Amino acid sequence: xxxxxxxxxxxxxxxxxxxxxxxxxxxxxxxxxxxxxxxxxxxxxxxxxxxxxxxxxxxxxxxxxxxxxxxxxxxxxxxxxxxxxxxxxxxxxxxxxxxxxxxxxxxxxxxxxxxxxxxxxxxxxxxxxxxxxxxxxxxxxxxxxxx
Length: 147
Prior knowledge:
The protein has 147 residues and is mainly α. The protein has a domain at 23-110. It contains six helices and no strands. The longest helix has 17 residues, at 2-18. Mean pLDDT is 80; it is low at 13-23.
């Protein structure tokens, strides 16, 4: 009886703690389609079409999109970083600080790994040194790393 209880306990520990770390049943192609649509880059896309559009805005994993391969937690984290970069460059309609919530919502809807929590600070305009000196002389506020 004790052996059966230990076995059941071991299975429960595995299911609750280790199973979520495994790859999801969502393919990278499905993820690319959902991501492209969520970013407002197209509707009714095929996996190939979604990959093409995401590539144009720089959202390409280090190993490339492998349409038939399952999505992993590592891929979701990498894609989140790439989407933040695309937002910082103004290539998508979202602000960088909006991306973590968008990615978490997308992952939850698809039933795959939630990306890690990150803090994205809004862009702060930086004033070049010569202009900063002129602004300070006029008593204006200056955001400059050189002062």
